[in-house]
RNA sequence: UCCAGAGUAGCUCAAUGGUAGAGCAAGCGACUGUUAAUCGCUAGGUUGUAGGUUCAAGUCCUACCUCUGGAGCCA
């Protein structure tokens, strides 16, 4: 019987502009309230935040079935969609037929009332069934879509850079080693010897960035972007770091640092605009229970230009700040979290783009400025999260690049193909990396990165 | 990895070194076009782990584990 009618999602049912004599709804029961001769079921199928209220009169389903129609169970309902007599919904369904698809054991850990995000993290396989995580992951999907939309509208090409890479890019940061060798069986061997027998015949790692590969395509297709998983084996235990995360890395030929900063700002604003206009309902829940000022803050960021200051100006501001910092502020030193927070949260109270960083604290591929002291690097900082974008104009001049590699202790032969880009028709180009989860944290108000990734990987944790 | 804090019922939390408690959830019942429904009853515990101090440890000490917040690394 149920096979002949097309299933309607809860979202479509609640958006209906007319009564429906017969509707088929499938989903999970969020809660049940019993009256003397009938029951109220709240059904959610994840298609939207809201539940659909179903009225089941006595006798519609067997007593044995009704006993199992409880919180968490999966059901199928055929009934009439009619205007609701109740207060909290416009439409409701009076059931003509109720089937139990999958019953729910009484040990089901999700209750009607609020759970802490810490507890829900332990049951990551069930947490998308909560209002909060349903909202987060619907928004995550929209945000990913918005990323592609932004670049595709600007004729950028989406490049799939490798996840397994050879060689440890710029020697910085801890990498995950990829190997088919058994570390126990080979423990007595010298590492170099073992690599000859390894799958790729050389050391390989999970990617920490697709940037160098993206540069290949920027110097051929002009405007490109990557959007994929990224891996860092750093022992970072903070609310803003994960071992596996998603990063977006646009790379543009003929862009200088100014162009790069302009694009970064337009990108962040467009992502916010998309979420504001397409995720209104989900945002409203987050605005109510997670971050009271969420929508106001997003609108505020959208309307104002980001503040842009040179690193040296930031240092001057911080030095004259009427605030004592734990760490010293010095020209030539990197800014600490507390300094970034002061700039973006206390002083400017908006996103801040800092550029022209001291050369010695930046990697080899960034372009040297004419002053000889700074590089054409830029970071975008946002209130509450800190660094959300890091980028630069790349060093397109072969001789300077080689010089940088020497000072960073890198071997020329390891970057031969990268250097070829400078040998054969080199052009100025720029790019940046945006942490997808950090952006999602910013638009949802969620303060821990573990709560915006479906299945988080952090040091010591690879569950599910 | 470093600093700080916390681990007690399924969840959120109480408990001067002296018999382990509540709210919610669950189970049973009553009531009701209800909507975080309401009311009554029932059950639920090796107090993170291992040692130690003490007549007596959830409570004090040591080590370890896990989680949370902050720092560093960064996106």
Q: Keywords for this structure?
A:
about 475 residues, alpha+beta, OB fold (Dihydrolipoamide Acetyltransferase, E2P), BirA Bifunctional Protein, domain 2, 2 domains, five-stranded mixed barrel, 14 helices, 16 strands, about 30% helix, about 25% strand, RNA-binding
Uncertain regions: pLDDT < 50 for 5+ in a row? none
The domain count comes to 2
Order of helices and strands: HEEEHEEHHEEEHEHEEHHHEHHEEEHHEH
Mean pLDDT: 91
Q: CATH homologous superfamily name of the largest domain?
A: Bira Bifunctional Protein, Domain 2
Largest beta-sheet characterization: 8 strands, mixed
Structural class: alpha+beta
CATH topology call of the largest domain? BirA Bifunctional Protein, domain 2
Q: What is the name of the CATH class of the largest domain?
A: Alpha Beta
Strand order of the largest sheet: 6-10-11-16-15-14-13-12
How far apart are the termini? 37 Å
The total of helices stands at: 14
- Broad shape: elongated
Q: How many strand elements?
A: 16
Instruction: Give the second-level CATH assignment, the architecture of the largest domain.
Output: 2-Layer Sandwich
Write the layout of secondary structure elements.
Layout: H1 10-14, E1 20-34, E2 38-44, E3 52-57, H2 63-68, E4 74-83, E5 91-102, H3 117-122, H4 131-153, E6 157-158, E7 164-166, E8 177-178, H5 191-197, E9 204-206, H6 211-221, E10 223-231, E11 244-253, H7 257-278, H8 280-289, H9 294-303, E12 307-310, H10 311-319, H11 337-347, E13 352-358, E14 374-382, E15 386-393, H12 398-407, H13 416-423, E16 429-435, H14 436-444
Parallel strand pairs: 3-5, 6-10, 12-13
Antiparallel strand pairs: 1-2, 1-4, 2-3, 4-5, 7-9, 8-9, 10-11, 11-16, 13-14, 14-15, 15-16
Helix pairs in contact: 4-7, 4-8, 7-9
The structure holds one RNA strand of 75 nucleotides.
